[in-house]
Amino acid sequence: MSVIKVAILGFGTVGEGVYRTIQSHAEEFTAVLGKKVEVAAILIKNKQKKREVREDVLLTSDFEEILELPQLDVVIEAIVDKEPTFTYLKKAIGRGCHIITANKEMFAHYGKELLELAKVNNVSVGYEATVAGGIPVIQTLRQLLKINRVSLIQGILNGTSNFILTEMREKKQSFAESLQQAQENGYAEADPTNDIEGFDAFYKAMILSRIAFGEEPDWQDVERQGITSITSELITAAEKLELRFKHVASISREGGRVVAAVKPVLVGNENPFYHVEGVENAVNVHSDIVGRITLQGPGAGMFPTASAMIEDLVYVCQSRSGERNIVKNTVEISETSKGEQKEYWLVQGLSNNSGVTCIDEVSTGINLIESSKKDLDLLAGQHPGICYFSILGEVDLAILNKEAATVI
Questions:
Q1: Helical H runs in 126-158?
Q2: How many whole angstroms from its chain centre is CA 263?
Q3: pLDDT level of residue 334 (50, 70, 90 thresholds)
Q4: Coil, helix or strand for 347?
Q5: What pTM, to 2 d.p., does this model score?
Q6: Are the C-beta atoms of 225 and 263 separated by less than 8 Å?
Q7: Residues 133, 304: contact at Cβ < 8 Å?
Q8: Helices 159-171 & 232-240, crossing angle to 10 degrees?
Q9: Is 171 a catalytic residue?
Q10: Which domains does the chain have, with CATH numbers?
Q11: Dihedrals φ, ψ of 312, to 5°?
């Protein structure tokens, strides 16, 4: 029986998960692919560290040794940073290998180039693990986009930020206390900037945009807001309105261009994100035929991420070439600018005489208002220190038990 030879770059949590899954699911690979899958080499940092791998596996800290193997079919990348990862994968493609990556930052920056290079070399690229861990969102989009036209994608794409918001609400903790808990649990790095400031979710959103719409927005135009401004007081005020904070990435086409944002929003119990808690991720896709579908599951961890990479291993081995042609999706979410539409907002820091119509003062210094984003942005420019968060969907004003709105 012929054999598919695989190299794994990195042997941390994800890399080890991939290796262990290949060993434990050998029969399944043979049944699906008609070939055995064997790990031929693993790229590591410290050759002195003892690792539980088969004796015939090459353990090396020199990528060139891997490229010189007599047979190499697939390179699975499970390391971090844009470089040397990008260089490694370019060389692997040049060698004629399929590649699989979980590196969302690298792929957001260089994915287009890698896909084009793979097409020239008649190999495939698997990148399911770059977005939402074990949730098969990329495979789902590929299937939908054969005929469906996607108009909007929204997602909770970062498990760390979702965990922090859940801890703040459930345990009545501060942001700092919840961040520390995330770090102690291994969900957040010592430097958590990428997670809590929305960079991680931003990179994932750009990858989804490329799949769903065939292009990305100008990165400088994307509204990116982290969760550091969310206080315990805001969490409590949201609960009074039966709402929950979620850090949501959204991508759509408006006015002939792709628009994206990554920011904290408020959702009610009718929203599919309302019950997405802890380190879970979820993606909500709106399309013209099937309507709205929601995918939910673990966003990180050894085996959820390894699962995505293993499914990609099957995908690239069964594909004849690189990325399928993506038809540029021109469907619009609406004909009017969302910035002009009035929405409900939870606002902290409004001063007297701001001229805003307040529906209710939910808590001291925290108000529920109705306004367009354009007007609220203008107001925030005139009154520094205002924090405001949009509410997705409807608000049950009956729970406020107020007779009339007031102007403050």
A1: 137-144
A2: 13
A3: low
A4: strand
A5: 0.89
A6: yes
A7: yes
A8: 70
A9: no
A10: 3-126 (3.40.50.720), 137-297 (3.30.360.10), 338-407 (3.30.70)
A11: -65, -35
Q: Going along 255-303, which residue ranges are E strands? A: 257-267, 280-287, 291-298
Q: How many helices (H) and strands (E) does the chain have?
A: 13, 17
Q: Give pLDDT, residue 245.
A: 98
384, exposed or middle or buried, with CB in 10 Å at 0-12, 13-18, 19+? exposed
The string of pLDDT tens digits covering residues 152-190 is 999 999 999 999 999 999 999 999 999 999 999 888 888
Band of residue 1 on the pLDDT scale cut at 50, 70, 90? low
User: Which member of 45, 47, 91, 204 is catalytic?
Assistant: 204
pLDDT of residue 382: 81
Query: Residues 85, 104: contact at Cβ < 8 Å?
Result: no
Give strand ranges (E) for 146-243. 150-156, 223-224
401 Cβ partners below 8 Å, 6+ apart? none
CB 16 within 8 A of CB 302: yes
- 258 close to 213: Cβ distance less than 8 angstroms: yes
Return phi, psi of residue 227, to 5°: -110, 10
Q: Is the pLDDT of residue 324 over 50?
A: no
